[in-house]
Structures are given as structure tokens and as C-alpha cells.
Design goal:
about 15% strand, two-stranded antiparallel sheet, 7-stranded mixed β-sheet, 9 strands, Rossmann fold, Helicase, Ruva Protein, domain 3
Length: about 280
């Protein structure tokens, strides 16, 4: 995906939000905002939003001297999500199709996304998603791919959200799973620390991948190795969709549509829940 004009206000909102969490110094807040605005004024719209987002948040980190502005937010979201864990397990246990409900709950967790919006209601989203049909419904292909796959690469999205990923992973316990998180903090993306908090390491082999100036480093030998080793990929969230939507092969995108540009690209309305096979419409 490339960047659009409508992405710019979102980057500015993220900047104001992040600098307030990163430092109490008004001088550094203003300096960071000015430098981000300058960067945005020269950014190429031919580049993906994830690449520009990385540059924006690197400026914020460098000026505020805070490598993880969202650290407290992520800890809070992890704690809050864990309070729903028993409820999620009950919903799966009482369902007629455990895998379908687990997949939909994993999508519900995608509402915990500070890059898209700091305002979300997790409980309402859970209850809504349970009865909400998949707008893009490639669940049959998803189930078939799971039946045939022995190894799965699960590309995680956000802290808090990974508790919802956990209930899906538990339905795939008979598979060999690599769970991929970010190697360093960016916004509220999940890192190794978050994965261990949710005990993902007891269900899958947790590995890290770098976020670089080009966004998710899909061209690195490390990332290619994980892809080559997997029979099937599961990609969570909008940012990973932005980075991987052109990827060929057995990849499935699980996300809640929260951005008008994603809605246009994926051809689903805002608020839709999506389970999309790569290369399918």
C-alpha cells in the first residue's frame, strides 16, 4: 500500500499523542512536533504508511530520549486484556465451531490499536464480533490451509491484542507455530516482553523481526527464513496488512477495519471484521 493525503492527519495525531506520553518537557514536545511536520512535508506518497510511521516515531524517540513512549499503555492494555481471558475461553467452549469463534475473537482483539485510535471498548467489541458476520469470509480456505499445514508463521500486531491471539493459538496447539513480534518498541506493537506476559512462549516459538526505515523488514534474510519455513502465514492487524498485502502464497489476514484507506483498499466498510486469504478478493 502507498501513503495517501488522509494518512497525514493520522500521523500528526499519533505524534501529539506520543510526545505527551514520552516527555513532560514542553520544549522537547514542540521540537519533536516541528521536526515531524517537516518530515511529513517532504515524505513521498509512493512509500507505504508503515515506512513513514517508522520515521515519525524515530524522530519522537530521538528528541524525547524515550525509546518506548507507549510502555505504560502497553502494560495497561496487557493487564486489561488478561481480565477477559476466561470470558474468551467460555465463548469458545460454548460455541458450535471453536476454530471460527477463536478466529473471530483474535480479530476482536485488533480493536486495541493506538495507531488507529486511542478510543476503543474491548468488551463491546467482543460481544459485537461474536454475532457479526465476517465481511470478507475466507474462513473455509483458512480451515483447509490449517488442515494441510504443519508449520505456521503467526505475525503479531499489538500488545493487549496478543491475549486474544492466545486463544486462537490454543486451538492450534497441535501445530508447530512461530509467533513473530517486533524486536524493539514502536507505538503499541507487541514485543518479546508482551508475548512472555501473555505466556505465548508456552504455545509457540516466539521470534523477533526488526522494524526499519522501510517499515516491517520483509526483505531481510531473517524474515524470509521464517516465511520459507512456514506452510501458512497468519497476519494480524492493519499495519501488517499494509506491509504484506502484496505477498503471494498461503497468507491470511485477520483484522478489524478501522481506517478509511484500509477500507477502500480491502473493499470492506469501516467496522468490518475480515478474514482474507492473500490474493483473494
Amino acid at each position: 500500500m502507498r501513503t495517501y493525503l488522509s494518512c497525514i492527519p493520522c500521523f500528526v495525531r499519533q505524534t501529539v499523542e506520543a510526545i505527551k506520553m514520552a516527555t513532560k518537557s514542553k520544549a522537547r514536545q514542540k521540537e519533536a512536533l516541528r521536526k515531524v511536520l517537516l518530515k511529513l512535508s517532504t515524505a513521498s506518497f509512493d512509500r507505504p504508511p508503515t515506512e513513514i510511521g517508522y520515521a515519525v516515531h524515530k524522530i519522537i524517540k530521538d528528541i524525547t530520549k524515550n525509546d518506548d513512549p507507549y510502555k505504560k499503555v502497553k502494560a495497561r492494555d496487557n493487564q486489561a486484556a488478561m481480565k477477559f481471558y476466561s470470558y474468551l475461553k467460555e465463548l469458545i467452549a460454548s460455541s458450535d465451531d471453536r476454530l471460527l469463534v477463536a478466529a473471530k475473537l483474535a480479530i476482536a482483539g485488533n480493536i486495541i490499536d493506538w495507531a488507529a485510535s486511542p478510543e476503543f471498548d474491548v468488551k463491546d467489541t467482543i460481544d459485537e464480533v461474536i454475532t457479526q458476520p465476517l465481511t470478507i469470509n475466507h474462513f473455509a480456505q483458512f480451515r483447509n490451509s490449517l488442515d494441510e499445514a504443519e508449520t505456521i508463521l503467526y505475525i503479531a500486531d499489538n500488545a493487549g491484542e496478543i491475549v486474544f491471539d492466545k486463544v486462537l493459538l490454543e486451538e492450534l496447539a497441535h501445530k508447530k507455530i512461530t509467533f513473530l513480534v517486533r524486536s524493539e518498541p514502536i507505538i503499541n506493537d507487541a514485543t518479546m516482553e508482551d508475548a512472555k506476559f501473555a505466556s505465548i512462549n508456552k504455545l509457540a516459538k516466539v521470534e523477533t523481526v526488526k522494524i526499519t526505515a522501510k517499515g516491517l523488514n520483509t526483505t531481510s534474510n531473517r524474515f524470509k527464513h521464517f516465511v520459507d519455513e512456514a506452510d501458512m502465514l497468519i497476519s494480524k492487524g492493519q499495519a501488517n496488512y499494509e506491509a504484506l498485502s502484496d505477498m503471494e502464497g498461503p497468507i491470511f489476514f485477520l483484522l478489524k477495519v478501522k481506517c478509511p484507506l484500509i477500507a477502500d483498499h480491502i473493499q470492506a466498510p469501516l467496522g468490518a471484521i475480515v478474514l482474507k486469504a492473500g490474493g483473494e478478493k
